[in-house]
Amino acid sequence: MIQIQQLKLPITHTREDLEAKVLKTLKIHKEQLLELRIAKQSIDARKKQDIHYVYTIEADTTDDKKIADRLHQNQIRCQKKAVYHFPTPCGPQFTRRPVIAGSGPAGLFCAYMLASYGYAPVILERGKTVEQRTKDVKSFWEGGNLNLNSNVSFGEGGAGTFSDGKLNTLVKDEAGRNRKVLEIFTKHGAPKEICYEAKPHIGTDMLSHVIPAMRRTIEAMGGTFLFESCLTNLNLSRGRICSAEINGTDRIETEALVLAIGHSARDTFQMLLEHNLPMEAKAFAVGLRVEHLQEMINQSQYKDAARLLPNASYKVTAKAGNGRGVYSFCMCPGGYVVNASSEEKHLAVNGMSNYKRDGANANSAIIVSVAPKDFGAAGPLSGIEFQRRLEKRAYEMACGAIPQQLYGDFKRKQENASAFAFPSMTCGAAQTAPLHRLFETDLYEAFLDGMEQFHRKIPGFASDHAILSGIESRTSSPVRICRNAEFQSEISGIYPCGEGAGYAGGIMSAAMDGIKTAEAIARAHRPGQMR
Fold first, then answer.
1. Last residue of a domain, one of 13, 46, 78
2. Is the C or the N end of the chain the one with fewer CB within 10 Å?
3. 467: which strand partners?
4. Predicted structure pTM score
């Protein structure tokens, strides 16, 4: 295989133009090109007068080495295609099926890999299937009651199901797990473009079909899903797991329990603390969702080329004058701000987009870093209590609706709400409220400082008419469940995994950690005649 990097083409190019550019770059005839694959596609918009696509191409030719050697160019190299390899299972045989608590990306991909190699995992999910969960979420957004176990945070697919479905990650991937995740997604109905786009995403509408398809494959390979089945207790003996309790009544005996519980499973964290499972508080970030007209973001990023390109995204970071980090998180082009609450009388928001990202507004969380010293208490769960205080305040500000305020009013601490210049795109009721009262002074000042710095990068970002919604508090887990080099807790047989355990941040890194955890289980045990 020949890899060609930094292949540039105009934004109006066709597939035929791409093939012609490859032939010209390799200096070969069409009959010498056996196959052409896009490995990566991105948009280079640094120079607004010369916006173009940039490709990394994989080409199979009649003589890869001879052609690559003849060219002597840094952007062209002959190499083998990286292939993911699951470790050969070893160690003593399991006598009980492994149990996975949670069916978010970490639990789902851990289950997929274990099922693929004969381990027949049992997946516990406190929430409902995607189909049933979607009904509960829509009912809540339309004014119904919050279902504490079937909502934006809990249910099949985890919190990522009702999000933008972003699949980019900063995790280094020499083992090919990233590619493996993308291939599994496409095998189950995700668009093939996610395998090469620089910022791939699926979208809530597509994820709601992809995840059940993965469930059916896992079941066909021997896995079992138990929905509306919450992990409520652990049964331990001599420092190792013996069984998992479900819903306070039933038990499943097991020698391996994967804790892929997600970052919002606060009752589960409390139960684990009572068992003295080693955990620690960790830093995360809190802030507000900020909405702008998508057209403004497109113009800022692409200028005159905006009409020819997909809706634009952005990523911004700053260091506030008081030393805190401020940055954008989970940016949703053409998206919605959603009520993502999971506890009574507490409110949190998130961002969501469908695959086409064709909504009128862009939104992103603008968040400020917080650390254990900010939590006002000690202990592994102090970050959770910090979240709860802010979420309770946000709930009370708008009587359970999403509290909103224009940035100009927020900046001037204006109690009377100004008229909105454009409508907010929300899922769930929203109401104007004095969001400037939500944070302590240093967090409020850091947020303002970051917004003004971002305005210098993206003109109009700190417009008085930008719409703020609060509170974005579930950016990552405030807890880390400690694990060793074998991915196990101090309690043998317990495998902390994914975002909730503090080892991932987003769909891709959580899915990859799920695969790593499955690999760790395979290195410790072989599948056997399991009951």
1. 78
2. C
3. 291, 406
4. 0.95
